[in-house]
């Protein structure tokens, strides 16, 4: 990728900290970054890559900071941006919040991290758990810590250290699916898909090898199993620990895991999803002076499941006032700055149906209102349930000492971009 230097700037373009990796870019070049950026903003042509002469600046903004990589080469831009976002992730894990103050208060640690994250313009160790083993937040310990070369520098498994020990060996597996849905005003599903992730919390001793089995349709077709209980995953992305060649050959998810929490994989499923929470709304206006909104919500998932923390956001006219509500369950409140009523239901069992009525006054002179009514949006979370039907069939844990470990599996379905259009 070949980045010559990395800078962290404040909002005015002042350099808080920088690291020159190759010496082929004058450090005074960064003075041109902010003027060019401001000129682009004024012209409405903001670009993530800014050039000044032969120097190219690839930048991102985070909180009240700009993170900028400078190069004179034709570098791989996607890799440079990946590194910048990884830098944000590592610094955030160190300092909880990455902002101007945290950089100024921890500049010694930031310098150490910039040295370890990149060498001569090429990324090196970017796993924060490994970095935290030998770069601490106590500056006076850094020189002593540098004398010890971490095992992961020469270890093929760079994301896991040797010698990890637990009294009780456990693996916690979370399968989390987000449902994206757009329903038209006449009830037709216009767009739907499922975005899933498998997250692990690993508390295992030694250097274990794990094998995860899912009801993957491609695997089932390879082995001649019944396809009725399988799912077709697309856009599958894995953590670096997964042996990709093994997965490509026989769909086995085999890996030596990092210690602690991490996302093992993500996937997408293109499926016609039946709306899990169905919403109907009726809006009545009376002589331009008041409006009544009736909303019916129905849980269209299995009766033994329960949706938690349900929020139904119903748009209302921007000039509405004097709200009154009546709900069969939960509570409703008016949020005038967003022009919505938020109906909150803590526990929504499958198969149940609930009602909410809202009454608003309107000014005597009504605006011409054909600007298009925003859709109703819904937030929810359903534990112990996946809408796609994906299942963890097994988790095998192999370690040379032969200890027994317990895998725990939890399924969660939640709302993603979940919208239902209404008739005005």
Describe this structure in words.
It is a single chain. By secondary structure, the chain is α+β, with helices and mostly antiparallel strands. The protein folds into three domains: 5-154, Beta-Lactamase; 170-272 and 387-413, Mu homology domain, subdomain B (Immunoglobulin-like), CATH 2.60.40; 277-383, Immunoglobulin-like (Sandwich), CATH 2.60.40.1170. Helix content is 18%, strand content 42%. It is built from nine helices and 23 strands. The protein has helices spanning 33-43, 77-95, 100-105, 107-117, 128-134, 142-146, 151-154, 217-223, 244-250; strands at 5-10, 15-20, 49-52, 55-62, 65-71, 118-119, 122-123, 170-183, 189-203, 209-214, 234-238, 253-255, 260-269, 277-286, 290-299, 306-315, 321-327, 331-335, 340-349, 353-361, 376-383, 392-398, 406-420. The strands form five sheets. Strands 11-13-9-8-23-21-16-19-18 form a nine-stranded mixed sheet, with no helix packed on it. A hairpin with a 4-residue loop joins β18 (331-335) and β19. The radius of gyration is 27 Å and the shape is globular.
């Amino acid at each position: 990728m070949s980045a010559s230097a990395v800078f962290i700037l404040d909002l005015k373009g002042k350099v808080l900290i920088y690291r020159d990796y190759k010496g082929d870019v004058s450090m005074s070049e960064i003075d041109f970054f902010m003027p060019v950026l401001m000129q682009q903003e004024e012209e409405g042509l903001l670009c993530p890559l800014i050039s000044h002469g032969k120097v190219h600046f690839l930048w991102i903004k985070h909180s009240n900071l700009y993170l900028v990589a400078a190069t004179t080469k034709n570098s791989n831009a996607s890799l440079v941006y990946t590194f910048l976002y990884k830098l944000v992730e590592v610094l955030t894990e160190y300092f909880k919040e990455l902002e101007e103050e945290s950089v100024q208060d921890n500049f010694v640690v930031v310098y150490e991290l910039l040295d370890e994250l990149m060498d001569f313009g090429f990324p090196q160790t970017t796993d924060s758990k490994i970095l935290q083993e030998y770069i601490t937040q106590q500056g006076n310990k850094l020189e002593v810590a540098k004398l010890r070369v971490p095992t992961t520098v020469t270890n093929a498994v760079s994301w896991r250290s040797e010698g990890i020990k637990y009294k009780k060996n456990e693996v916690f597996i979370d399968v989390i699916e987000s449902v994206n849905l757009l329903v038209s005003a006449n009830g037709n599903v216009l767009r739907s898909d499922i975005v899933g992730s498998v997250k692990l919390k690993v508390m295992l001793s030694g250097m274990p090898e794990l094998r995860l089995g899912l009801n993957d349709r491609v695997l089932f077709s390879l082995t001649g199993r019944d396809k009725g209980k399988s799912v077709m995953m697309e856009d599958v992305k894995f953590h670096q620990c997964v042996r990709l060649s093994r997965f490509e050959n026989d769909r086995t998810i085999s890996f030596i895991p990092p210690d602690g929490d991490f996302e093992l994989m993500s996937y997408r499923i293109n499926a016609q999803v039946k709306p899990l929470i169905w919403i109907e709304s009726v809006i009545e206006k009376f002589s331009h002076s008041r409006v009544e909104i009736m909303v019916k919500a129905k849980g269209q998932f299995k009766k033994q499941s329960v949706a938690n923390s349900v929020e139904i956001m119903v748009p209302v006219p921007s000039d509405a006032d004097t709200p009154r509500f009546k709900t069969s369950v939960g509570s409703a409140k008016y949020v005038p700055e967003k022009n919505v009523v938020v109906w909150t239901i803590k526990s929504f069992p499958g198969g149940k149906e609930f009602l909410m009525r809202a009454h608003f006054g309107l000014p005597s002179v009504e605006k011409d209102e054909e600007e298009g009514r925003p859709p109703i949006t819904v937030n929810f979370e359903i534990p112990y349930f996946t809408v796609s039907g994906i299942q963890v069939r097994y988790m095998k844990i192999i370690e040379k000492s032969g200890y027994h470990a317990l895998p725990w599996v939890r399924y969660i379905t939640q709302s993603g971009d979940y919208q239902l259009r209404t008739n005005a």
